[in-house]
Design goal:
259 residues, alpha+beta, 2 domains, 5-stranded antiparallel beta sheet, 5 strands, elongated
């Protein structure tokens, strides 16, 4: 990866993760103001207002820490941005819904109704957890299918003449996890092979294109020429993601030189 592209990647990740931490700071402002108002403006005991706001303060700090954690993850840029987008977007949607409830109470009915406000927050939270449940169940089904696919391809290690290897992506690095004998014979530099697969798949982004496609759980294939035992050979290379990490894939190289 070029220095300029690396700089852009860091900036994109910093902006995405920073937006999550900023949401946490904004959320901390709510209990912070309430603590100040109770203890210094209304003369209430400090311990009581701290106890009242303790959960909100803790959750706000968790969101701030989550932004920092998100920046440090060895994820693709797309995954970091997508995760941050869900956090910021969800916060915006919930805030608009609660603002609607409060606005109607203040400007239409002329009074606040704490129970209605609390009930609205619970309903919004339940819808959020329902959506999370749908996502989780879908992810579990996807993981089960990927595991079945992994088991199927693992069997090929023992029963095929193709060159098969499993790799893991992390940041700008690729690690070779497992290979069969034919893969060891055909591939002498897995980093270079993955880079060339990326160039064939997307000549602009190269390695990053392979990583991001694997992270989306999408399989693809390319034609590649490799030098094996001093001879130029033509291969069809299949890249097949497996597992639930979004960072592991099988490389299946089929020699089609004589076809």
């Amino acid at each position: 990866m070029s220095r300029e592209r690396s700089r852009q990647s860091r900036a994109k990740r910093l902006l995405a993760a920073g937006s999550v931490s900023l949401v946490g700071l904004l959320l901390l402002a709510i209990p912070g103001y309430d603590i100040y108002s109770d203890a210094w403006m209304e003369g209430k005991s400090l311990w009581s207002t701290l106890l009242e706001n303790s959960i909100l303060v803790a959750l706000g700090l968790v969101v701030v820490a989550t932004g920092i954690w998100l920046y440090t993850q060895e994820w693709t840029d797309a995954r970091v941005v997508r995760t941050a987008g869900w956090c910021v977007g969800g916060t915006a949607v919930f805030s608009i819904a609660l603002a609607w409830i409060l606005g109607i109470q203040q400007y239409v009915q002329g009074e606040y109704k704490p129970l209605v406000i609390a009930g609205g927050a619970v309903v919004i939270g339940s819808m959020g957890t329902f959506a999370a449940g749908i996502y989780d169940s879908g992810q579990r089904e996807s993981r089960a299918k990927l595991q079945m696919e992994r088991d199927r391809f693992s069997a090929l290690f023992r029963n095929t003449t193709d060159a098969i290897g499993s790799v893991a992506f992390a940041g700008n690095d690729v690690t070779l996890l497992e290979t069969n004998r034919e893969f060891d014979r055909v591939v002498d530099d897995v980093d270079r092979v993955v880079e060339r697969i990326g160039e064939a798949h997307d000549d602009v982004r190269g390695y990053r294109a392979v990583h991001e496609t694997v992270a989306r759980g999408e399989s693809f294939e390319v034609n590649l020429q490799l030098t094996v035992d001093g001879e130029d050979c033509e291969f069809i290379v299949q890249v097949v993601p497996y597992g639930d990490s979004g960072a592991e894939a099988f490389l299946v190289l089929t020699d089609v030189t004589d076809q």
